[in-house]
């Protein structure tokens, strides 16, 4: 058995969940500025996450959920996951984003699990507070090590795929490190770099058969 870990925002999904939520709450410019700096490694991830989620205060849970369930998947996402699963890989998602999106797309894509953050709400309105498994810059690396221990896997059995600075911590614990349309800060840590915005390039890079889809 081998393990594949995907980032979600701008990897499995074509965009950043929090930026799309911010558009619906008229705080898009403020949030996207923080996102851009965080993904380039210019800001501490925890502080950036807290500050961005605070700007979502007052957004209804119903609206946030509706948006999260209609996010655009990256080109080739389903075909890529299917190809990996046929080969017997366990495929999971680590996201500095939110369970309202990742849990839904875990079902759509057939992932084995997702690990992300939770938007706190009261009386069906977001409070601007956040908690969860992926709050810090090293969270993905720590969670990857836990999964490797649980599944009795090593870094040789592990493939990681991401695009931003907060993916570096999981890159430190895998032999195959794929930077997918990534920031320069992550490309430096990768041994496979893909610049085409189509996830079907990943099975190709790994010499895994990809079924032709009608």
**Which strand order do you get reading across the main beta sheet?**
4-3-2-1-5-6-7
Residue-averaged pLDDT: 95
Q: What value does the Rg take, in angstroms? A: 16 Å
Q: Class, according to the CATH hierarchy?
A: Alpha Beta
Structural notes for this entry:
The chain is α/β, with parallel strands linked by helices and 214 residues long. It has a single domain, classed as Rossmann fold (3-Layer(aba) Sandwich). The protein is 40% helix and 21% strand. It has ten helices and seven strands. It has a seven-stranded mixed β-sheet with strand order 4-3-2-1-5-6-7, with helices on both faces. It is globular, with a radius of gyration of 16 Å. It starts with a strand and ends in a 9-residue tail after the last helix. 44% of the residues are buried.
What is this structure's SSE topology?
Layout: E1 3-7, H1 17-24, H2 28-39, H3 45-54, H4 61-68, H5 77-86, E2 90-98, H6 99-109, E3 113-122, E4 125-132, H7 139-151, E5 158-162, H8 168-171, E6 176-180, H9 184-187, E7 192-194, H10 201-205
Parallel strand pairs: 1-2, 1-5, 2-3, 5-6, 6-7
Antiparallel strand pairs: 3-4
Helix pairs in contact: 1-2, 1-4, 2-3
Summarize the structure.
With 214 residues, the protein is of the alpha/beta class. The chain contains 10 helices and 7 strands. The radius of gyration is 16 Å and the shape is globular.
Output the keywords.
214 residues, alpha/beta, Rossmann fold, 7-stranded mixed sheet, 10 helices, 21% strand, globular
